[in-house]
């Protein structure tokens, strides 16, 4: 359950962004704020990482105030809202201030295109400062290339979930070469979910090889659809449905198509 704001920790414009302590499923499906039951059904010991302080940011003032707040030392998960318009400098500030303690970082939005101004430089900085990340979502980050992706692969060995996507109006810049360390080099051994949609240079055959090589990895790739009524009419005329351009082993009931 979320806790309420602590009085006096943030200014009124940013008060909704005081850390929210939330129970949420971990990648293994076990709630982070629950006791693990013994075989006889009685409560067991609590997991060590039982509570996560999660902050949602929707404006620049909230970020600036957060970074000087006493609560900053308790934050391990940050989500930039869809209207934040994230730039490299925002990620550098965050990584410099609380990077080592971050376990989850999410930004960008494929509907609004927020994330398009993020570049390799910021991703490399995050990779260098935030070694404990387990979840990294870079949505609609069409300016991030193989170089930024490589920095993530080389530095964030604890990652279990990774998103690097474009959006339905503009492709990202990831290529098949960028995926090679995952296929042949054993990069990110703990990775369980990979989202690489709207990356036009990533080919179906390469994703197939990745899935065959990494049996414990779920991948979603391919092209997403616009949400406009006009695009819906186009799909109908073509005899297609929303989601037909997606493939991998994370859709179609686990079947790769």
TrEMBL record:
Polar residues bias (residue ranges): 1-10
A biological-process GO annotation: SCF-dependent proteasomal ubiquitin-dependent protein catabolic process
InterPro entries referenced in this protein's UniProt entry, alphabetically: Leu-rich_rpt_Cys-con_subtyp, LRR_dom_sf
GO cellular component term of the entry, any: SCF ubiquitin ligase complex
Compartments in which it is found: Cytoplasm, Cytoskeleton, Cilium axoneme
Stretches for region Disordered: 1-51
Protein name as catalogued: Uncharacterized protein
Organism: Chlamydomonas schloesseri
Lineage: Eukaryota, Viridiplantae, Chlorophyta, core chlorophytes, Chlorophyceae
């Amino acid at each position: 359950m979320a806790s309420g704001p602590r009085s006096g920790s943030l200014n009124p414009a940013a008060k909704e962004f005081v850390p929210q302590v939330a129970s949420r499923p971990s990648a293994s499906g076990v709630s982070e704020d629950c006791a693990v039951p013994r075989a006889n059904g009685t409560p067991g010991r609590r997991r060590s990482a039982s509570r996560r302080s999660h902050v949602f940011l929707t404006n620049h003032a909230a970020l600036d105030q957060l970074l000087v707040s006493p609560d900053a030392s308790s934050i391990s998960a940050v989500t930039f809202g869809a209207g934040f318009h994230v730039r490299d400098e925002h990620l550098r500030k965050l990584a410099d201030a609380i990077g080592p303690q971050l376990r989850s970082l999410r930004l960008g939005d494929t509907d609004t295109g927020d994330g398009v101004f993020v570049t390799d430089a910021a991703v490399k900085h995050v990779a260098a400062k935030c070694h404990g990340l387990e979840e990294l979502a870079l949505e609609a980050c069409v300016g991030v290339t193989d170089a930024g992706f490589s920095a993530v692969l080389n530095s964030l060995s604890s990652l279990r979930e990774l998103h690097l996507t474009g959006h339905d109006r503009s492709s990202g810049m990831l290529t098949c070469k960028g995926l090679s360390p995952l296929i042949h080099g054993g990069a990110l051994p703990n990775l369980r979910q990979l989202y690489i949609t709207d990356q036009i240079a990533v080919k179906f055959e390469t994703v197939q090889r990745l899935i065959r090589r990494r049996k414990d990895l779920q991948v979603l790739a391919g092209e997403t659809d616009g949400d406009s009524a006009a695009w819906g009419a186009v799909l109908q005329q073509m005899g297609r449905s929303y989601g037909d351009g997606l493939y991998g082993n994370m859709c179609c009931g686990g079947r790769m198509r």
